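Propose amino acids for all 490 sites.
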């Protein structure tokens, strides 16, 4: 091994291998490996440029790297790599916002490969994972198509579980294999936990208060701790069990009414109302909506539309210089839905604050000991700067995330069962084996209750095999055509 090789391996923790093991490529590209994770040595090889380029860069960066390597490595990982983390089904998109990074740590296969002095210059280009050819300026934007999750799945079959896309001016690493995703999201979740904020995520400055968009830091940890202790603790979840069963029973009562009148049910809307009322009772101790009510439909439409808007590929995200112009009008559209939802939640908080003020003036205690009361108490104590504005944005995250995902999941599950009658019969048979055919215990699962007590018939003369099972892309995947069916009591 030459002296330059020895110096470089000592400085960067790499082991240079010879031709007979893995060695150099015919174009003299350098392949590096590193030992890590205590007693286990894992070799990871990545092409990072020609041998001569690495030596030249090593000489130039020798002094500064000795002083700053340890500190800057972690800092620049978060700023340069993990700030671009986005999740698009079926892959994880890691947006490399900038190549002007002194050190960039790329986690892959359980090994950190330190890529040094990564500058976007013609004489020193980082060799990224393979990917499709990118067009000038626009890159691979057209490769995404109308359904990016399907396009990415197709591309991964050609280029592998780790591939590169250039989306406008943003270089993106797409991770679509379970192994790579596990390394990033489980073993190194802290390094990649911060997301780059989508342009539509900046509505009403939500990104400054939201646990979804905040970078890992004191404010994010405070919100996480409050959520863990006051919202999702074991005591809170156990205390909410009777409430969840009560709401499932109301759903079954509504379905029975529709069976009696032979009225078709919009499954997604009914599931949304149930989820919305479970959450609103948990937080506000009251129902926000009723089945077939205008309020329920208005709230659902706003949440679904917002998810669709945020999920649309946005030119302002691909070309940051366009953000002030909002070329597709997505930010303006998102503002409409966010302000509508915020107004509903703000009104609920106002009503509680006014009721508490009146009770205090009368010397009475009006506390309901629900989640809102707990959060308002924290706000009054000014615990670490937790204000009413923080409460509003936290509730916004809870309602938009919990209701939309639950609704979409249940609607797709019911659609698949109705579309495949033999699967419906098998699922019902398995439930009867567990609960008994005449069981009257109401469990906390919407889907189990709906298939155990009712069969389902499509409107008109539509056959199950002719159902429209197409999807609409967004933050969550919604059915393109809502599932509407008539319940038949078993």
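Proposal:
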């Amino acid at each position: 091994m030459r002296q330059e090789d020895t110096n470089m391996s000592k400085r960067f923790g790499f082991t240079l291998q010879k031709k007979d093991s893995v060695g150099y490529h015919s174009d003299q590209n350098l392949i590096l490996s590193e030992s890590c994770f205590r007693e286990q040595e894992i070799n990871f090889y990545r092409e990072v440029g020609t041998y001569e380029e690495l030596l030249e860069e090593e000489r130039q960066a020798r002094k500064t790297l000795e002083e700053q390597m340890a500190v800057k490595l972690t800092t620049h990982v978060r700023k340069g790599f993990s700030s671009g983390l986005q999740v698009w089904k079926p892959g994880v998109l890691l947006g490399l916002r900038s190549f002007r990074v002194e050190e960039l740590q790329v986690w892959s296969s359980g090994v950190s490969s330190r890529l040094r002095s990564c500058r976007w210059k013609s004489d020193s280009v980082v060799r990224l994972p393979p990917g499709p050819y990118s067009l000038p300026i626009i890159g691979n934007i057209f490769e995404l198509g109308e359904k990016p999750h399907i396009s990415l799945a197709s591309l991964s079959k050609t280029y592998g579980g780790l591939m590169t896309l250039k989306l406008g001016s943003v270089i993106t690493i797409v991770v679509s294999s379970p192994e790579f995703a596990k390394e990033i999201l489980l073993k190194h979740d802290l390094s990649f936990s911060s997301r780059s904020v989508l342009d539509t995520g900046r509505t009403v400055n939500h990104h400054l208060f939201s646990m979804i968009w905040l970078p890992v830091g004191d404010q994010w940890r405070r919100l996480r701790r409050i959520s863990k202790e006051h919202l999702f603790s074991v005591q809170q979840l156990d205390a909410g069990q009777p409430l969840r069963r009560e709401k499932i029973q109301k759903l079954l009562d509504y379905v029975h009414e529709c069976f009696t009148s032979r009225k078709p049910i919009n499954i997604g809307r009914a599931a949304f109302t149930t989820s919305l009322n479970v959450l609103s009772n948990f937080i506000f101790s009251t129902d926000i909506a009723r089945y077939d009510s205008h309020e329920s439909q208005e709230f659902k439409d706003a949440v679904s539309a917002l998810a669709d808007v945020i999920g649309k590929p946005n030119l302002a995200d691909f070309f940051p210089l366009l953000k002030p112009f909002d070329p597709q009008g997505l930010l303006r559209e998102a503002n409409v839905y966010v302000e509508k939802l915020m107004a509903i939640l703000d009104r609920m908080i106002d009503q509680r604050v006014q009721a508490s003020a009146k009770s205090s003036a009368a010397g009475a205690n009006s506390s309901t000991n629900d989640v809102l009361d707990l959060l308002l108490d924290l706000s009054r104590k000014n615990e670490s700067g937790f204000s009413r504005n923080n409460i509003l944005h936290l509730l916004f995250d809870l309602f938009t995330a919990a209701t939309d995902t639950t609704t979409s999941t249940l609607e797709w599950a019911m659609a698949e069962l109705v579309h495949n009658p033999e699967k419906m019969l098998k699922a019902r048979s398995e439930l009867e084996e567990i609960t008994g055919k005449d069981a009257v215990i109401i469990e906390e699962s919407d889907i189990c209750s709906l298939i155990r007590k009712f069969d389902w018939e499509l409107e008109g003369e539509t056959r199950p095999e002719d159902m429209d099972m197409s999807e609409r892309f967004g933050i969550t995947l919604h059915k393109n055509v809502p599932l509407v069916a008539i319940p038949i009591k078993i």
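The first strand starts at residue 15 and ends at 16. The chain is about 50% helix and 15% strand.
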